[in-house]
Design goal:
This protein is about 80% helix and about 0% strand. The protein is built from 3 helices and no strands. The longest helix has about 55 residues, at about 65-120.
Length: about 130
């Protein structure tokens, strides 16, 4: 086996607990983003409805057809933005679930190792000692 890359061996690595904490924080952050997108989508949908009503109102006042058409087009654009924001929210929810699953998988696969290291009667050697030549 080749010698360890000096550049990589000098990098600070995350310990198990830090990794677990970072994954949990990421899941929370992504979920907050999803909630923000849901809220934005709701506000955009409501705004689109209001603009649509405004288009109907100005049409009933015999405002020129170009202005009415532009107002209706704005309503459609806002509806599209609302749908896009809902799509982002759905994707963010999915990403948050994956992050939580990853955290649980890390716990299942590594928690026993971490407990063994924590309970070891002697301190663990430097990790480079365990590499094979």
């Amino acid at each position: 086996m080749p010698a360890p890359n000096k550049k990589n061996s000098d990098k600070t690595t995350l310990a198990y607990r830090e990794l677990k904490r970072e994954v949990a924080n990421l899941a929370k952050e992504v979920l907050r983003g999803a909630e923000h997108h849901k809220s934005l989508a709701s506000r955009l949908a409501e705004g689109a409805k209001n603009v649509g009503r405004t288009a109907d109102n100005i049409a009933s006042l015999n405002v020129d057809t170009a202005t009415v058409a532009e107002t209706r087009e704005l309503s459609k654009t806002m509806q599209g933005l609302s749908q896009s924001a809902n799509g982002y929210a759905t994707s963010a929810n999915d990403a948050s679930q994956v992050a939580r699953y990853t955290e649980r998988a890390a716990i299942r696969s590594h928690e026993g190792i971490q407990q063994a290291v924590d309970n070891a009667p002697v301190p663990m050697a430097n990790r480079t000692w365990y590499t094979q030549e």
